């Protein structure tokens, strides 16, 4: 590596269109753009959609909403936004979230730095001048020193392939690309494939308007009540005045949620005390059970089975038909081994006369026909088929961008056996590619996890700028240590084989653990430690505009 240190912060930027390109105008990318502005980087944000919000721009199916309390999901800076914005419910709906992100970009005049309808189709690193050249689907080309991917961990919809899908003459749609104008489901015969969080939210939202709903379920989930409700004006004021304390709490909890981490183990309590605690969790709001059940609920199989059995009893007590209830109870994984959906009337919907549950383990889909779906038991006719079949999570967006690092190495090939990152923010051999939300760095309440990454990446780029560097690369040994640390934390997720946590939902994808499961406080601590030690594990250099790196 030829490296000479220059004092000019922006010499390289002169030969590039921008110092920084950000990919994605979701919750993470918009925050990164805001931080870029604060530091006066020359920046452009490339967004595939025609509007902002990311997840909350694309997933506009009926009843799409967060299961993080809205006031823990929004931004904590800038302060004016906290003062001005009122959340109307504990868990915000898609329209409210989309409005929130639009207010953010409008208030802070971020829109002028965003290129819409610009899906990144190719991003190639050049050693000459240490530059990324990025091409977008609208035929434009951009060059920049740094390419920051805020492309999301659940942003690439997955469509399973069934024979005959192109022959179906009715309407098909995916929850993650729901049409802007909505879908008229009134009086229609509707099929829904998939019972993850999206399917579980959709079922009760549409059951009363459709003529019939057939739910094709491959694996049931341990869904628990969301217990959403409206926020009164007094509650909003209370939340507003408590923001500083709330933020401190969110910094402390492992998931970046309101919910405190349990400290007691399950069998430290009597049967009666456990039962009372489980009831309390069932009646509580949001993701509480994931964090506040018992400290060993995910690590001790007996503790996990105890809580899972409580949930199974709840399902049996709500769903009147015992056979349907049994089909809705997971048999292959315990609570928390897959990401649990939060529900509002999901199990109750199965008591309606116009719903049918097809267990795909007994009756797999054989093909789509021109008028419906043929499964092993029979053929059913539909007007609409809805895919709620999830995402190519964590790596999908990054491996679809045509990213080529040093020597033209492609990221999708480099990660063919699973992601390899340093701190979840950099990939050895892909200089100046920085990741704000991706594999091995993201966990829990996404905005709280992503802000740790954004703040770190902002500091890293500022460190390079102020030292006259224009090349940042992660050392391979540092990435090896990080990857080992990530996998060490994942050991108790042994029953997650079918989950997007491990790529288990995507045929042919490497089955490797993808989130960062040690919790956000430990993640923040590790990133701070690296920053405080001169960004240990990173290699910095200055590459002159016309000089090749040797
Ligand atoms: O996707 P999923 P999702 N044949 O992967 C099934 C977040 N989110 O969009 O489990 C038949 O969970 C698949 O079956 P199986 C949240 O983090 C949050 O629902 O693989 N079925 C499964 O049932 C969530 O976890 C909210 O056997 C097939 C479903 O499709 C994440 O996004 C709301 C199939 C996919 O479930 C993903 O949720 C929505 C096939 N070939 C989403 N392939 C909030 O509440 C897949 N399936 C905030």
From TrEMBL:
Top-rank lineage group of the source organism: Bacteria
Sample GO molecular function, one term: flavin adenine dinucleotide binding
Keywords: FAD, Flavoprotein, Monooxygenase, NADP, Oxidoreductase
Alphabetical list of Gene3D superfamilies matching this protein: FAD/NAD(P)-binding domain (3.50.50.60)
Listed PANTHER family: DUAL-FUNCTIONAL MONOOXYGENASE_METHYLTRANSFERASE PSOF, L-ORNITHINE N(5)-MONOOXYGENASE-RELATED
Similarity-based family: Belongs to the FAD-binding monooxygenase family.
Protein name (Swiss-Prot/TrEMBL): Steroid monooxygenase
Native species: Mycolicibacterium moriokaense
């Amino acid at each position: 590596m030829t490296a000479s240190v220059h004092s000019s912060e922006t010499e390289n930027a002169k030969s590039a269109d921008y110092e920084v390109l950000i990919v994605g105008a979701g919750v993470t990318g918009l925050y990164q753009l805001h931080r870029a502005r604060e530091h006066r980087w020359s920046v452009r944000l490339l967004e595939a959609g025609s509007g902002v919000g990311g997840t909350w721009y694309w997933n506009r199916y009926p009843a799409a909403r967060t299961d993080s309390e809205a006031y823990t999901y929004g931004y904590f800076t800038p302060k004016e936004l906290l003062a001005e914005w009122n959340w109307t419910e504990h868990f915000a709906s898609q329209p409210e979230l989309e409005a929130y992100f639009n207010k953010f970009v409008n208030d802070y005049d971020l829109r002028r730095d965003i290129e819409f309808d610009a899906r990144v189709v190719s991003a190639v690193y050049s050693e000459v001048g240490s530059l990324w050249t990025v091409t977008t689907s609208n035929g434009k080309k951009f060059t920049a020193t740094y390419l920051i991917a805020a492309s999301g961990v659940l942003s690439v919809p997955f469509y399973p392939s069934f024979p005959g899908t192109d022959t179906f003459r009715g309407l098909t749609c995916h929850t993650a690309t729901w049409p802007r104008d909505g879908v008229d489901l009134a009086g229609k015969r509707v099929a829904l494939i998939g019972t993850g969080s999206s399917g579980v939210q959709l079922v009760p939202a549409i059951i009363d308007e459709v003529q019939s709903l057939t739910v094709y379920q491959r694996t049931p989930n341990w869904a628990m009540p969301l217990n959403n409700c409206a926020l009164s004006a007094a509650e909003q004021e209370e939340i507003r005045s408590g923001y500083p304390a709330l933020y401190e709490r969110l910094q402390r909890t492992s998931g970046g949620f309101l919910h405190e981490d349990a400290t007691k183990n399950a069998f430290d309590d009597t049967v009666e005390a456990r039962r009372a605690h489980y009831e309390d969790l069932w009646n509580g709001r949001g993701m509480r059970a994931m964090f506040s059940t018992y400290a060993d609920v995910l690590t001790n199989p007996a503790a996990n089975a105890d809580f899972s059995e409580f949930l199974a009893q709840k399902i049996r007590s709500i769903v009147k038909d015992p056979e349907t209830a049994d089909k809705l109870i997971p048999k292959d994984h315990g609570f928390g081994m897959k990401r649990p959906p939060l529900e509002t009337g999901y199990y109750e919907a199965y008591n309606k006369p116009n719903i049918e549950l097809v267990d795909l383990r007994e009756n797999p889909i054989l093909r789509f026909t021109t008028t419906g779906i043929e499964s092993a038991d029979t053929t059913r006719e539909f007007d609409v088929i809805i895919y709620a079949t999830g995402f190519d999570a964590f790596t999908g967006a990054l491996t679809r961008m045509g990213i080529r690092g040093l020597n033209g190495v492609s990221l999708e090939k480099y990660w063919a056996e699973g992601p390899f990152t340093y701190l979840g923010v950099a990939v050895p051999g892909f200089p100046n590619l920085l990741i704000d939300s991706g594999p091995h760095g993201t966990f829990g309440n996404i905005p709280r996890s992503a802000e740790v990454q954004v703040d770190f990446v902002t500091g890293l780029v500022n460190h390079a700028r102020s030292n006259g560097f224009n090349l940042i690369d992660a050392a391979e040994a540092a990435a090896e240590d990080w990857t080992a640390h990530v996998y060490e934390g994942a050991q108790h997720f042994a029953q997650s084989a079918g989950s997007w946590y491990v790529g288990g939902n995507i045929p042919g994808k490497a089955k490797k653990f993808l989130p960062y499961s040690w919790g956000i406080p430990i993640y923040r601590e590790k990133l701070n430690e690296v920053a405080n030690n001169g960004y240990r594990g990173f290699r910095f250099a200055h590459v002159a505009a016309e000089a090749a790196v040797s």
